[in-house]
Design brief:
single chain, alpha/beta, Arc Repressor Mutant, subunit A, D-Maltodextrin-Binding Protein, domain 2, two-stranded antiparallel ribbon, 12 helices, 12 strands
Length: about 300
């Protein structure tokens, strides 16, 4: 991640060398991110780039997420044994859902070397050495074995303070005057959610925009606005009470997603069989907990998203 590398190294050329790209490519990415967010992330002091206050907050969130995944991969890499399993996973799902569970898998299966590649890039199974992919999307990939791990539930989330304002003055009023937080790669946009729930006069052209759910959720926790996100990725924040549904009475939009995919021939591999059985159990437990938690928050109604 360009931003994280520059923040850590304090120089564009050092970050570029680490990422094996040109300094101009790094500078362009940083400029694009600042323009997208509408804030200055760095200030130049002599030859060094120093994080601004907004940049520091973003860096803490990004570094924590990337560190979690690196630590999981490091623990896995120390395992020696007979079978290896290479998995590619959607980045946010890998960091926030799969990463914390990796230790359970390797403890239960010490004979499998697990390699996790967290990225949004899709796998070409004919050209790449990948056993399984966990792919984000509303539809099952064509031509591959595919099973949805979760039924996603998308709803507006915010700090308890903003939710209290919605109870007092109404959801419409809060949406009109509160900053909207956008996860730009999300399957359901604010415009779609507003249309599904028949809200009008809400300006979606402004607000905060992030390309990672972790950053969107952190901004919402900090009280920066209302985020439209999935209960799966926000489960920790919902558990702790850092985030709550803005309008629990409206429930959530649902669709199957995080498709466990591979060519059918891979299903005969022993390591794949073991991992599929393990992750099915974890996904089932997650779905039960998520449903109970949303019900306790009053957001138990669901509506299938019209695709």
């Amino acid at each position: 991640m360009y931003f994280e590398a520059v923040a850590r190294r304090s120089r564009v050329n050092l970050a570029a060398s680490e990422l094996s790209v040109s300094p101009s490519a790094v500078s362009q990415q940083i400029k694009a991110l600042e323009e997208q967010m509408g804030v200055l992330l760095f200030r130049r002091v002599k030859r060094r780039l120093i994080l601004t206050e907004q940049g520091e907050r973003l860096y803490q969130s990004a570094a924590e997420a990337l560190g979690l995944l690196r630590n999981a991969q490091s623990r896995v890499s120390r395992r020696r044994e007979h079978r290896s399993l290479r998995i590619r996973v959607a980045a946010s799902f890998g960091v926030r859902w799969l990463g914390p569970l990796v230790t359970d898998f390797i403890s239960e299966n010490p004979g499998i070397d697990l390699h996790v590649d967290a990225t949004s890039e899709l796998t070409d199974f004919e050209k790449e050495n990948v056993d399984l992919e966990i792919r984000y999307g509303m539809r099952a990939p064509i031509g591959l074995h595919a099973k949805a791990l979760v039924v996603e539930r998308v709803l507006p989330l915010c700090s308890p303070k903003i939710a209290a304002a919605a109870r007092e003055s109404g959801v419409q009023a809060v949406l009109e005057r509160t900053r909207l937080i956008h996860t730009v790669k999300a399957a359901i946009s604010w415009n779609e959610w507003l249309a599904e729930n028949k809200f009008e006069r809400v300006d979606t052209s402004h607000g905060l925009k992030f390309d990672r759910s972790s950053m969107s959720l952190q901004a919402a926790c900090d009280g920066a606005g209302v985020v439209l996100e999935t209960a799966t990725l926000a489960l920790n924040e919902l558990r702790s009470g850092a985030l709550v549904p803005l309008a629990p009475e409206l429930g959530s939009l649902t669709f199957p997603t995080y498709w466990l995919t591979c060519p059918p021939r891979h299903l005969n591999r022993r390591a794949v069989i073991v991992f599929v059985a393990w992750i099915d159990k974890k996904a089932d437990a997650h779905e039960m907990e998520k449903s109970r938690l949303l019900e306790s928050l009053g957001a138990n109604d669901t509506k299938a998203h019209a695709r």
